[in-house]
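Sequence only, no structure available. Ideas?
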Amino acid sequence: MPRSILIVEDDHAACQILERVIAVRYPGVALYTAGDGKSGLDCFMQNTPDIVITDVNMPVMDGIRMAWKIKSIKAATRIIVLTAFCNKTVAEASNSLGFSVDSYLLKPVNFDGLFTAIDRVDSACSTMVPVVS
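Reply:
I predicted one. Tokens follow.
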């Protein structure tokens, strides 16, 4: 089970729902939330969570740029991207910055897919295969 998860989502209601379902599924995990990429990066710097779950399109700083900055600070951080776009678009955006995310989830988020992605990125496996749900 992950020790800590940061959720970065500009839709406040969606963020609250994610926070609640994760708290129920993973009791005891430290949960942090932020409403944009800059706030997410600031929260990451203060708390260094194991996993970051982020939206792509957000004000101030988008999720891909935030994820790139996080990976440049702590490469072992696992990143799960929530997107309404196809995973190829997200992969191309992250690869253009020289990094890759660990998993992708298409919106609207399927909670079973979310839990599978969290469990996979949290596992000790050194080879990560992106999960598309």
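The chain has one domain: 4-122.
Hope that gets you unstuck.
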